[in-house]
Amino acid sequence: AFIPNTDIEQVCKMIIETFDTESKCFYSAEHQREKYIVAADRKGQIEKFPLMTVSLAVLRILNKEGLTSTILASKAAAIKKKCKAINASNFIIHSYYGNEDINMSL
After folding, report:
1. pLDDT above 70 as % of the chain
2. What is this structure's pTM?
3. How far apart are CA 83 and CA 67, in angstroms?
């Protein structure tokens, strides 16, 4: 999605708050209390899984010079990987300025 720079953090927080609130309806009170479910994985093995979370990878483009779809996809994938390493709903905003990376923030 394309969101004005001034609204990015507010929109991310709203998405996470809504997701975290609405996703609770998929779990019993016991699951919510324990913060996990027990189910079979893809190989049929019984395993504990954490409750659903949402991870938002945000790439703030400050200068489009030299930006290609390959670079864009690579940057977005790297940010998403960092988001997924956190075991809670979260977002990371990464600023891209040409060939330089400026910052990442949670």
Report:
1. 92
2. 0.78
3. 22
> Measured between alpha carbons, how far is residue 88 from residues 16, 27, 28, 91 in Å?
10, 16, 19, 10
Query: pLDDT tens digits, residue range 58-103?
Result: 988 888 888 888 988 998 999 999 999 998 999 999 988 876 555 5
The set of long-range contacts for 71-76, using a CB threshold of 8 Å and a minimum separation of 24, is: 75/101
Give φ, ψ of 31 to 5 degrees. Answer: -60, -45
DSSP secondary structure letter of residue 52:
P
Determine the residue type at 30: E
Distance from C-alpha of 66 to C-alpha of 64, rounded to nearest angstrom = 6
Residue with tokens 């994938």: 77
SS3 56: strand
Alpha helix (H) residue ranges in the chain: 8-23, 29-34, 69-84
Rounded to an integer, what distance in angstroms lies between the CA atom of residue 22 and that of residue 3?
23
